[in-house]
Design goal:
single chain; 165 residues; alpha/beta; 26% helix
């Protein structure tokens, strides 16, 4: 008997983990996840966009518009920063980060400072904005690579039905 064909690639696997992590977000508008991987294909950190530990999801705003302090923006930690902060306690030098959304300029600073050497993203929906331009300029100047994930599959179905196992 030969090995099974059609299994997912490393990129599909780790982007899948990032996407699954995003499902933990309480944000009603945007659910972003991130997954950090070392050179041995081991997951060393995951994160999703959400409030800092100790800040109740029910006591802070989730709005995208309004006065600054009445929106989510001053309070929410992005997935990439959470993945860096939630790492398993190792040096992230040489690691890759998979993220559903191309990182903002603030997360890009943390990515560079942490020693991560490659960003793999699914969506670049803010391409052309000043924040995206700043991110790409910093990544380019610091030698951190970035690329859009390429997959052979359009979607991946998960089932919690034990009969499917």
């Amino acid at each position: 008997m030969k090995k099974r064909q059609g299994y997912i690639s490393w990129d599909e696997y780790f982007m899948g983990i990032a996407l699954l992590s995003g499902h933990r977000s309480k944000d009603p508008n945007t659910q972003v996840g991130a997954c950090i991987v070392n050179g041995q294909h081991k997951i060393v950190g995951t994160g999703y966009n959400g409030l800092p530990v100790g800040c109740s999801d029910d006591e802070f705003p989730w709005s995208k518009t309004g006065d600054f302090l009445e929106t989510k923006y001053p309070f929410v930690c992005h997935a990439e920063l959470n993945a860096i902060l939630n790492n398993i306690g190792i040096d992230l030098k040489g690691c890759k980060i998979y993220t559903a959304l191309f990182p903002c300029n603030e997360c890009t600073k943390a990515i560079i400072q942490s020693g991560i050497t490659e960003v793999i993203y699914l969506s670049d929906k803010y391409d052309g904005t000043d924040a995206s331009k700043a991110s790409k300029l910093m990544l380019d100047k610091s030698g951190v690579g970035y690329r859009k994930v390429l997959t052979a599959i359009a979607e991946l179905r998960l089932s919690y039905n034990e009969a499917d196992v």
